[in-house]
Design a protein that fits this description.
heterodimer, A: D-Maltodextrin-Binding Protein, domain 2, D-Maltodextrin-Binding Protein, domain 2, 9-stranded mixed beta sheet, two-stranded parallel ribbon, B: mainly alpha, 12 helices, 2 strands, globular
Chain lengths: 294, 280
């Protein structure tokens, strides 16, 4: 008798749980819908009619920036779909010139022949890569050549660049990392790095540089904290300002490429305008780059 | 009722088959493309090199072999002696204190081993041997040696305890000392169980990824005790997230998984052979 009572009670409880869940979900849906439909006309009353698809393709390093931008953009223009495909900067510029993509993405300056073929660069962001050492390291300033020599294994002791007599432990990111690609490209050591250790995340690398006074590494500007010291490159400190004004050497532009004389679709134009606006600056910053338009 | 047991039994087999077939299907294309010899015995791994990519995994294979051997050399003597201690020497009260500690060691997640290794072991190795960085094969071996201890201890202890009491009594009655009894009578009698514990340890060491990812440095060098090295497991773990679907790099990572799988199979076959021989 007791057993049956227990089973019945358990069933009642379970039923109660189920109905509670059902009620919760149905009531929470309603306000969400209301708020989204209410906010859209409020923020952009004039642009309601813009709809369509914006195809972007190119640089894989720009993925996080473009995805963050398209996410924010979708909140303002729910009818516009922004597609991204990563196939490299060269292919991105090519696609913009050929018209196969609305906007090409390149994480470098345009080459001369690309500009003469009608490619127009719109710099939406700048990506600075800081060179970091342990705070106990006396070296404050390195030239790009010295950095290249250190990472390619030509310089192996800190005394060769004005530090103490200690071997250099060269820390880098794992193969395929966007930061590694950017750093190697700008410093000119693509596929030529002699790394002591490889780490699979920026935080891991920063932490290990903080724990080893012999170490040198690199990280996105946004990931540098007080546990490590960012060295000056050719006398210029790595800050948002020096990246923005172009004086810091290890940086690259994130460019949205369009074609001269070809009008963008309304949706693509709206997306480009949004990416270039001051509004987008905090989104770009959150994605790890610096906006020149802030 | 019988049906349920049968179904449960087949679930394990189904998963083994599924994983085997999946690994073989996804691992073979890259081996075909790179060439079996080039893949297994190539000494250079540079999967993202745009002009001259290389997919030789000999450094990973040798690192995994050396790392596992090192862990066995350090871990097995300690483990077996601890098992003898627990099963035969220790007073019951002390054994009751040591046993939970060993069980706890088995329960510690591998990422915690890695973390302690990274924060304590790696800087210590750097200072003791005056290296530029402490992340090395040695650090990985030490971490692995500790990690395989629990399985060696508990399986060996069970095997030692399963030896009939008459063996001990007979040995002591013939005038052998306690120590002689333990090492010359009981340990040989339990050898198949002890061998099984060692193979289990090998399996754990060769398959471990997280802990050694944090202490080994992860550069694809040929192994050296003080060099930063990459294991078969860590090669897969560190590159998988960046390898694009369908690329040769990703397929090559699957192939590494296949090689690892073959290693584990060989170890299991070896174990079965040991146990069978013992029965004969």
């Amino acid at each position: 008798m007791k057993k049956i009572l227990a089973i019945v009670l358990a069933l009642v409880l379970a039923l109660g749980l189920l109905t509670a869940c059902g009620a919760g979900s149905s009531s929470s849906q309603a306000p969400a819908q209301e708020s989204s439909s209410a906010s859209t006309p409020a923020s952009e009353p004039a642009e309601e009619s813009v709809s369509g698809v914006v195809n972007t393709s190119g640089s894989t390093s720009m993925e996080s920036v473009v995805l963050a931008l398209s996410e924010a953009f979708k909140e303002m223009y729910p009818d516009v779909t922004v597609n991204y495909s990563g196939n490299g900067s060269g292919a991105g510029v090519e696609a913009a010139i050929a018209g196969t993509s609305d906007i090409g993405l390149a994480s470098r300056d345009l080459k001369e022949e690309e500009s003469s073929n009608g490619a127009v660069a719109n710099v939406v962001a700048k990506d600075g890569v800081a060179v970091i050492v342990n705070p106990a390291n006396g070296v404050e300033d390195l030239t790009v050549e010295q950095i290249a020599d250190i990472f390619s294994g030509k310089i192996t002791n800190w005394s060769e660049v004005g530090g103490e007599d200690m071997e250099i432990a060269v820390y880098g990111r794992e193969a395929g990392s966007g930061t590694r690609g950017a750093f190697e490209e700008i410093v000119g050591v693509v596929d030529a790095c002699a790394l002591t250790n490889e780490y699979s995340s920026t935080g891991d690398l920063v932490g290990n540089v903080a724990g080893n006074e012999n170490a040198i590494g690199y990280a996105s500007l946004s990931a540098v904290d007080e546990t490590v010291k960012a060295v000056k490159v050719a006398g210029v400190e790595c800050t948002e300002d020096t990246v923005k004004d172009g004086s810091y050497a290890i940086q690259r532009p994130f460019v949205m490429v369009t074609k001269d004389g070809t009008a963008l679709s309304a949706a693509a134009q709206a997306f480009l305008d949004f990416a270039m606006s001051a509004e987008a600056a905090p989104i770009i910053a959150a994605a790890g780059a610096v906006s020149p338009n802030a | 009722m019988r049906l349920i047991f049968t179904v449960c039994g087949f679930i394990a087999i189904a998963f083994v088959l599924l994983i085997s077939v999946y690994l073989i299907l996804s691992g073979l294309p890259a081996i075909k493309e790179v060439g079996l010899f080039e893949f297994l015995f190539g000494t250079r791994w540079d999967s993202t090199n745009k002009t001259d990519p290389a997919y030789g995994i000999l450094p990973f294979i040798l690192t995994s072999v050396w790392g596992t051997c090192g862990a066995i050399v350090l871990g097995v003597p300690v483990g077996i002696l601890t098992a003898v201690f627990l099963a035969r020497v220790a007073p019951p009260k002390l054994a009751a204190a040591v046993r939970p500690a060993v069980d706890l060691l088995a329960g510690i997640p591998s990422v915690v081993y890695g973390l302690v290794g990274m924060m304590v072991l790696v800087p210590a190795i750097k200072d003791i041997f005056d290296l530029k960085a402490g992340d090395s094969l040695l650090a990985a071996i030490l971490v692995l040696a500790v990690m395989i201890l629990p399985s060696i201890i508990s399986v060996s202890e069970t095997a030692l305890k399963a030896v009939p009491k008459e063996y001990t009594e007979g040995s002591l009655a013939l005038g052998a000392t306690e120590l002689e009894t333990s090492f010359k009578v009981i340990l040989p009698a339990a050898r198949s169980g002890v061998a099984a514990s060692v193979v289990l340890g090998v399996g754990r060491a060769i398959g471990e990824a997280m802990a050694i990812l944090m202490v080994a440095g992860n550069s694809p060098n040929m192994p050296g005790l003080f060099k930063s090295v990459k294991f078969l497991t860590t090669a897969i773990a560190s590159e998988m997230s960046y390898a694009s679907v369908g690329s040769l790099q990703r397929n090559a990572l699957y192939s590494i998984g296949l090689v690892l799988f073959v290693f584990i199979m060989l170890i299991n076959v070896l174990l079965n052979m040991i146990l069978k021989k013992d029965k004969e």
